[in-house]
Target: Phosphoserine phosphatase
Amino acid sequence: MNLIIQGLEVNNSDLRSIAKLSHADGIERITGQAFRLTNAMYSNDIPDYCLQSELDFAFVKPGQELSDIKLIVMDMDSTLLAIESIDEIADMQNIKPQVSAITQQTMKGEISFEESLTRRTWLLRGLHQDTLQKVYDERVRLSSGAEKMLQQAKRFGIKTMVLSGGFTFFTERIKEKLGLDFAAANVLEIENNKLTGKVVGEIIGREGKAQVLKQVRDKLGLKREQIIAIGDGANDLGMMAEAGVSIAYHAKPIVKQHATYSINYVGLEGIINLFA
Model:
C-alpha cells in the first residue's frame, strides 16, 4: 500500500519516523503539504503518531486515480461550507445556542436528524425570509480547499453534487455559484414572507440522502466504486455507505469509524491528494 501523509506543516523528521514505522521504501512529494510513502505496511503506532503530530494519514492502493471517479457528492454544512447555515440563521434571531445544541446532538447521532430538523426549524418560525439572503451574503464561506478540489474534479470531467439536510435556499445558490451538477436539500415553508417553522414535504435526512444519491447514481449509470461521498455528521452515513469511497471530513467520531478515509487537519484539497 501507499501511505499518504498530509498536514498543515509536515516535517522531514515526521516523514522519516512514519516511514520507519510503516517499513516504507520511499518518500515522494505530492504537494508542499502532502507526501506519499511507498510500499508501506500498517502499524498500530501510526494513528497515534499522526494524532500527536496533527497529520492526516491514509493507506491507499497503488494505481488509485481520480480518473476512475465519476461523481463527488458533498454534504453542505461544515463540509463544503465552513458554517452550519441553520445555526447562522438562528444567530440572526438570537437563538443560536439553542439551535446549535440540537445540531450537535444530531451530528453525534444522539437524536434522529428528522427530529432535530423539525425542532430546529420550529425555533425559526416568524423569521422574515430576507434574513436567509442576509445569512448567505454575510456568513456563507467555503471550507478550505473547496475550490481547488472542485477545479480538479471539473478538470477530470467528474460530476459534482451537494446533498444537504439543510435548505434549498442555500444549496441552489451554492450550486449556481460553484457550477455544481446536482443539488438536493429541504424546502422551508414560507407564508407572508415569513418562515412558518415547518419544512415542506418529506425531510431529507440520513435515509433521504442515501435515496437521492442512489437516484443520481442510477441516472448517470454509475457503479458504487465510481463515487466519492464526503460528510461530517451522522446523517451523512447513509449516503457515504452508497459510495465506493467515503471521506470523513473534520468529522464526528461515529463518522470516522465508518469512513474509508478521514481528513482532520488539511482542507478539502486533501481528498485530491489521495488519488495523486
